[in-house]
Amino acid sequence: MPRRSILLFAGACIAIAAALATVTVVVVKGRERADAVAEGTLTDQPAVGGPFQLVDQDGRPVDQTILDGKWSLVFFGFTYCPDYCPTTLTSLEATRRLLGPDADNLQILFVSIDPERDTPQALKDYLSSEGFPPGVIGLTGTPQQVADAAKVYRAYFQKVGDGEDYTMNHSLTVYLMGPDGRFRSALGHDLGPERSAQLIKRVMARG
Fold first, then answer.
1. Which residue of 104, 107, 109, 196 sits 20 to 30 Å from the alpha carbon of 69, by its own alpha carbon?
2. 182 neighbors 49 (Cβ within 8 angstroms)
């Protein structure tokens, strides 16, 4: 084979090898990112959390300092939710049981995105349902206060329909906040109690 042909053939082989290596890196990085999103460990996320003014299920004013000194799981939902909200709360109870002693320093905050119907008393009655985690802190407020709280957590919600039978579309993420009140990780709604508990333990260990 002429020298020029050999060089061209070698160059082509090198180019193909480089292209395959690039594709492999992209695929691996893509899988790593997908896994991180699923488990809530992706670090290049926008800032989550910040100041808010709400009231709890006993009608007492509450702000972001309620997060200080304890690990917190913050979840946005509403009491008329037919599926995801009760399922998430039940799942969080199972997660808390799996945490063992670590659960002693963990609180759960359920923030209503339906203040029109979710009064403090309505939240109190709802959160006392069997199967839900005991001691969940229900939060509500004026429509503006709720919108402001959802905004700082980047939580989406939208009213759908009119009249008494309206419902609410909303995001399903559970936010894990550290004892300093700052965001640590996100728990996907389909992560499940076992993986959620493992994730929380890992994040707690890091502090």
1. 196
2. yes
Q: What angle do CA 105, 60, 71 make, to 5 degrees?
A: 15
pLDDT tier at 19, thresholds 50, 70, 90: very low
Q: Return d(Cα 49, Cα 159) in angstroms, integer.
A: 22
189 contacts: CB under 8 Å, gap ≥ 6: 84, 88, 172, 173, 174
How close are the terminal C-alpha atoms of the chain, in Å? 64
SS3 140: strand
Residue 69: alpha-carbon gap to chain centroid = 20
Summarize pLDDT for 165-180 with one digit per residue, the tens. Answer: 899 999 999 999 999 9
Q: How far apart are CA 55 and CA 53, in angstroms?
A: 7
Predicted TM-score of the model (pTM):
0.77
Structural tokens at position 36: 């991180």
Measuring CA to CA, which residue among 135, 140, 173, 154 is closest to residue 50?
154
